[in-house]
Each structure stands twice: as C-alpha cells, then as structure tokens.
TrEMBL record:
Keyword terms, alphabetized: Membrane, Transferase, Transmembrane, Transmembrane helix
Cellular component aspect of the GO annotation: plasma membrane
GO terms (BP aspect): cell wall macromolecule biosynthetic process; cell wall organization
Topological type in the membrane: Multi-pass membrane protein
Family classification: Belongs to the glycosyltransferase 4 family. MraY subfamily.
Official protein name in the record: Unannotated protein
Length: 352
C-alpha cells in the first residue's frame, strides 16, 4: 500500500505544479487549441487555450511510478513497464497529431488512416511483447484467454490475441479522444476508472494463486504493481484536472487522450478484466456509441440525424445545457459505470 500511496501522491503533486509551468510555456509560444468552425459556437471562446497538456499526464505518471519504486526499493515489473510503453507510444502518435494542428493553425492533424495506423503499430507491439516474458509460474503479462472479470476458458491463438488487443486499444484510445470535448470531462472520468483499477489490482494480489492458492485464486502476473501504476495515472489526472476543469486553462490534446485511452486498455488487458472495461468505462462507451449511431443513421436515412451533433456531449450543449452541468451529469454516469463494474467484479468472487 505504501507504494500505491507514494505513486499516486507523487504523480498528483508533479502534475499540479508542472502544469502551470507548461501553460506559461505554451502560451508564450502561441501553441493554442484550434477550434472547429462546425462545432458549438460557445467553444469559440476557447480558441487559443494552450493544448498538448497530455505531456504532463504522461510525465507525471512515469515520475510517480518510478519514484515510488525508488523509495520502496521494489523492482519495476514487466507488466507495468509494457503498459507505460503503450502509453508513451500512443502519446507520441497524439503529440504528432497535435503538433501538426498547431503548426498548420488548422483543426487538421494526422488523417484518420494515419492515426489508426500509428495506434495499431503501437498496440500490436504491446500485444506481441505482452505474450513474451513468462514468470516462474509461466504467466505472461497478457493472457491468451478472453477475460471478463477474470480469465475465461475461451482461448485464442497468439495472432488472434494480438488482433483483439489492437481492437481494444484502438477502441479505448479513440473513445477517450471523443470524450475529451468538454473541460475536465475525460480527465475526471479517467480518475474514477483508474481508481477502480487500483482496487482490482490490490484484490487480485491478495487473492492471487501465488499468495492464496485455491479454486477462486487469480492467475494474474504483477497485479499489485499494476495497481501502483494505476495510482500514478489517477494521481496525474487529479493534479491535471485542477487546471483542466471549467474554465480550462489547458487542454490535454490528443497526446493526452490517446495515452489515457491506451492506459485504460492496457491495464484492463494485463489485469485480465478485458470485457469488464465496458462497464468501468461506460461513459466512454456511451459517447463512442453516439458517434457510431449518428454516422450509421445518417448514411442509412440519406442525411437525417438522431442527435443534433455527435459526440453526445455536444448534443446536450446544442439543446441548451450548460457545459458544467453536462460534465457533472456525465461524471455521475461514469461513477455509476465504475460502481457497476466493481460490483460485477466482486459478485463473481462471492457467487463462484
């Protein structure tokens, strides 16, 4: 527990004090947010707000994680290092996208194909590496079994595991990217999910087959260290949220949203709770679904729309809801999803 507290506190403090420094630097350089002309008109006042704040989220998480290990003297684990590599890799893809937007002074960075290819390469490398490095018990960071609240009996070939991991990472990273449209919405929701991962990691460690053998034990590699990493990510988001909440002084940009989405997927995969992420990250699923439904309905009906605008949060803006009201109500939905996910996780343990 000491490592978890150190990790989260260090990341939160780092993010809280480093973010205003980055804000001043970005403002001085003129690296501000480019606002789409076809978006809600209320967003035009945000034009020029410093962006690429996700750099701080990544740095704070990494610093928090490693400071915790230096202080406690515990070695870093392969599982956590792979998730960190995934976060950094996706952050680089997002940074390139953000940089191109700032350089061109247009809301046009990498095109969709280029971004998906970049994300796919990073996710594929993570998946392949995760199937290597077995520990003494033969456990690799990523299982070849499909998991819900734990590994199921459904086993995939290595190639299919890699494809599945790529799909998960693409879906989650782009889901967070779509959610990051209102001040603090994605950051606050991510804090809740990362906190859930802390609880799950600690529980899996306490009931792991190495610590507590039995029919109900969890065969997960490095769950406690993944909880330490989740704490660093939660702390980083919390410290950053102080400056990202409405009215935002800085936006995380694609460098932050893609990295956070990758972290969510990476932790769910390595903790062997893949499909549970649907409940834990329900707000991201809901917002992504609104885009899919809008596009599909538009094409089927030849131009009609279900929502005034997608993603879903912008629909509520256009019908007159205030931004803070939308964010708070969506946070409530996010918290209910996290509660449901934790309930499902614990219920399986009780009834099995």
């Amino acid at each position: 527990m000491k490592g978890i507290l150190l990790s989260g506190a260090t990341a939160a403090i780092f993010a809280f004090f480093a973010t205003p420094v980055l804000i001043k630097f970005l403002a001085k350089k003129g690296y501000g947010q480019i606002i789409r002309d076809d978006g809600p008109t209320t967003h035009q006042i945000k034009r020029g707000t410093p962006t690429m704040g996700g750099v701080i989220l990544i740095l704070a998480s990494v610093v928090g994680y490693f400071v915790s290990h230096v202080v406690t003297g515990v070695a870093a684990t392969t599982s956590a290092l792979l998730v960190i590599a995934l976060v950094i890799g996706l952050g680089i893809v997002g940074f390139i996208d953000d940089w191109l937007k700032v350089a061109k002074q247009k809301s046009l960075g990498l095109n969709a194909k280029q971004k998906l290819i970049g994300q796919g390469i990073v996710a594929g490398a993570f998946a392949y590496a995760g199937l290597q490095f077995p520990d003494q018990a033969g456990l690799t960071p990523i299982s070849t079994n499909l998991s819900t609240v734990r590994d199921t009996s459904i086993k995939f070939m290595a190639g299919l595991v890699i494809v599945w991991v790529i799909v998960m990472v693409l879906g989650t990273s782009n889901g967070v990217n779509l959610t990051d449209g209102l001040d603090g919405l994605a950051t606050g929701a991510a804090v809740m999910v990362f906190t859930a991962f802390i609880l799950i990691g600690v529980w899996e460690f306490g009931q792991s087959c190495a610590v507590s053998p039995g029919l109900k034990c969890y065969a997960v590699r490095d769950p406690l260290d993944l909880a330490v990493l989740a704490a660093a990510l939660a702390g980083a988001c919390g410290g950053f949220l102080w400056w990202n909440a409405s009215p935002a002084k800085i936006f995380m940009g694609d460098v932050g949203s893609l990295a956070l989405g990758g972290a969510l997927a990476g932790l769910a995969i390595t903790l062997r709770i893949q499909l549970l992420l649907i409940a834990l990250g329900f707000i991201f699923v809901l917002i992504t679904s609104s885009v899919i439904i809008q596009v599909a309905y538009f094409k089927i009906t030849g131009g009609k729309r279900i929502f005034k605008m997608a993603p879903l949060q912008h629909h509520f803006e256009l019908i007159g809801w205030g931004e803070v009201t939308i964010v708070i109500r969506f946070w409530i939905i996010a918290s209910l999803g996290v509660a449901a996910g934790l309930g499902l996780f614990y219920a399986q343990w009780v009834v099995s």
